[in-house]
Amino acid sequence: MLLHMFYFFFFIPCVLFVVLPQPLVVDGLREIRTKQPHFDESPTYLWPLPAEFTSGDEVFTVDPSLELVVDGAGGASDIVREAFERYRKIIFEHSGSDYVAGRFRFKRVLRESIISEYDVSQLKITVHSDNEELQFGVDESYTLLVSAGEVTIEANTVYGALRGIETFSQLCSFDYATKTVQIHKAPWVIHDQPRFAYRGLMLDTARHYLPVGVIKQIIDSMSYAKFNVLHWHIVDKESFPLEVPSYPNLWNGSYSKSERYTVEDAYEIVNFAKMRGINVMAEVDVPGHSESWGVGYPDLWPSPTCKEPLDVSKDFTFDVISGILTGLRQIFPFELFHLGGDEVDTKCWSQTPHVQQWLQDNNLTPTDAYGYFVVKAQEIALSENWSPVNWQEAFQAFPYNLSPQTIVHNWVGPGLCPYAVAEGYRCIFSNQKVWYLDHVNVTWDEVYTAEPLEGIYDPSQQKLVIGGEVCMWGEHVDTSDIQQTIWPRAAAAAERLWSPRESTLKANIATTTLPRLLNFRCLLNRRGVAAAPVKNLQARQAPDSAGSCYDQ
Ligand SMILES: *[C@@H]1O[C@H](CO)[C@@H](O)[C@H](O)[C@H]1NC(C)=O
Ligand SMILES: *[C@@H]1O[C@H](CO)[C@@H](O)[C@H](O)[C@H]1NC(C)=O
């Protein structure tokens, strides 16, 4: 106790003496800059790496009342303005309060002496087009110039502007010595655009229900890594949480009355995502993975004891699919729609007498009937003006029957896209060995080095690989652990899909990529995303021991 008193009375004044005078003798930010070598731990790491950029060696300060100035036909968009407000909160996280207890005087002094000395007080955003349709392949390119007095983002679409604002936010960092937001390594010239048009994350709301607010948080976090597609695996064998107005008993197959999505919820999610430049691709997986449909409509089961795949022999089955798709078309404007088609075990068809009879009458084997089902579902999707996406099994079972508009979704392993594009189909890469996030023992570097174009050398075939997607299957995740299972590993795929192949290929993973990813994970944490330690051997584990965010 005595010792504590001693420390208290003796050391505290010393600490005050040492710490306080230092800022008080400084007459402006520039002085602080030159006198204190800054601690360059994080400010200039970008993720994903832009296509082209150059930087300098100056430090610019950013005015906490940074002003948005817009130009061009699309500049006045709500999408731009709302993004600016979101990012203002992120960038000026530490500058929001006027009250700083014992340092009140210090703050006042600083304010009065430097208020007009910020290097950057305007963010000028020019958007050339006023077309806000978030189509597949929408132009996401932008140019970001950071020079003294001016930061400009120029883009053809509002979605390019969003990507530019994200990059701008990553250039900004809070300097604790001067209590200002700074941009290091200025001036910057960044010309950026994505490598692939489709950069997805899949969420599965059938194995565990995810509340709407949690889906929104995940969408927010996706935009930080420049993902642009949320693949929403809405329903599956275990549950059917979605409201379908034309078949109102379908969501009787939800886990409970509250674990459901109204059509308004779905619409809200799509809009929320659009404001962040993210398309939502819905999935209704047929004919397998469908047992839950029959809770509300038992006629969809081949029999009460053999419940999937959906009964191929009945018109009612296709009426229901048609009703679902017509309803969903009003909500999901994205031109891709996922029809599943994976892991179809036809045993219930060959073992159920009335289906067996139907197969015989139509001279079909169970495998033929699987093909018939997939093609018929595709026709419904095509009639709704959707391009159908199917898991790879459909392509493998009948590569010549599918619509030429089909996009084959690889998952089982590597090497499938080369076959699909050789047949002229488009392909999405999701090799489960590296890009299934539920495989928690896959480390970030294995995610990072996966290459969607592996084994494809013909440039015209390479173009058919529209991108890739990491999949967060839901058996072992719910609200309690989903963010840390997704992040930071999803970010590794995000960079692979955004940045030029040459820059990710030649990167030295340990010395250049890892520090940037460590930094990005801390950025996610600062923004409230529960991203797990980067160096985990098992995803989503807690840190091993005490230590800095930048080193775990
Ligand atoms: C589905 O739910 C509705 C509303 O709760 C109920 O009226 C109906 O009987 C249920 N149908 C089946 C087949 O469970
Ligand atoms: C990761 O888990 C999978 C599935 O449990 C297993 O097959 C594989 O061997 C594991 N790999 C490593 C490196 O532990």
UniProtKB/TrEMBL annotation:
Q: Entry's CDD domains?
A: GH20_HexA_HexB-like
Recorded GO MF terms: beta-N-acetylhexosaminidase activity
Q: Which reaction does it catalyse?
A: Hydrolysis of terminal non-reducing N-acetyl-D-hexosamine residues in N-acetyl-beta-D-hexosaminides
This chain's protein is named Beta-hexosaminidase
EC number annotated for this UniProt entry: 3.2.1.52
Q: Where is the Glycoside hydrolase family 20 catalytic domain?
A: 196-500
According to the entry, every stretch annotated as the Beta-hexosaminidase eukaryotic type N-terminal domain falls at 46-171
Q: Membrane-crossing residues?
A: none
Could you list this entry's UniProt keywords, alphabetically sorted: Glycoprotein, Glycosidase, Hydrolase, Signal
Give the lineage: Eukaryota, Viridiplantae, Streptophyta, Embryophyta, Tracheophyta
InterPro entries for this protein: Beta_hexosaminidase_sua/sub, GH, Glyco_hydro_20_cat, Hex-like_dom2, HEX_eukaryotic_N
Record has Lipid metabolism as a keyword:
no
Signal sequence span is: 1-17
Entries under Pfam families matching the protein: Glyco_hydro_20 (PF00728), Glycohydro_20b2 (PF14845)
Specify the species. Stylosanthes scabra
Top-level enzyme category: hydrolase
Identify its protein family: Belongs to the glycosyl hydrolase 20 family.
